[in-house]
Amino acid sequence: SQTDSIKDYHYQTIDKLAVGIVHEIRNPLTVVGGFLQLLKPYLIEIGKEQYVDIALEELKRADQLIYEFLNESKPSEQTPKRISLNQIVKDTSLLYECEAILKNITIRNRFTDEEIDFVANDKQLKQVFLNLLKNALEAIELRQDKSRNGIIDYYTVMEENRAVVVIKDNGCGMNEQTLRNLFLPFHTTKDTGTGVGLSVCKRIIEEHHGTITVESTEGFGTMFRIEFHLR
Ligand code: ADP
Ligand code: MG
User: Could you tell me which residue ranges the Histidine kinase domain spans (predicted)?
Assistant: First the structure.
């Protein structure tokens, strides 16, 4: 099918890029990590060592992602285990907390009373939600109307036997053309975008037998829904 050939193209291109880029990106990451370690004592002094820990964790994750998505071009072969969807939403929110505060954006969480747990690959699911959160933050920065406060609603809800995660922003929204193409690899409307984020999200969600859908109004905002069918 056309989608498969686009996927193949995506993988082949990434394989080629990988050879040249992986080492080049890993080196600066190592340098940044080194300097962060040097800063740690000062942050401990003012009780903010959590920040440096998060930054180092993120560097590690970036390094791993480069390895997984560029070098292997297939998602990591982590053995699936029982995961808590609420915990994944909490963890990924925390990672963007700092950036959201700096950009004056509120991330509002809400969780199901009952724990939602099922067997999944938690690294991959985190990757999905981080990509979606990043897009939401960027969409808020990109909107024309700066009078409204930036808000991201990021929550879990059970609908019958479906576990649902919603990420809703009041950012720039999308036009018809973008809505039609947003899951295609390399489709981006951003100056510095890669257009890889959502195609990776879709692939991972489908590998988890879930669905990802989107509703968007240009100038008003966007809502992504990820649904997992539980037994
Ligand atoms: P990138 O973020 O690098 O552009 P993505 O695959 O993550 O690539 O997204 C593809 C495109 O989909 C974006 O360039 C943007 O036009 C659109 N998009 C994705 N998420 C949102 C959102 N929350 N609000 C508005 N547009 C979005
Ligand atoms: Mg993106």
Answer: 20-231
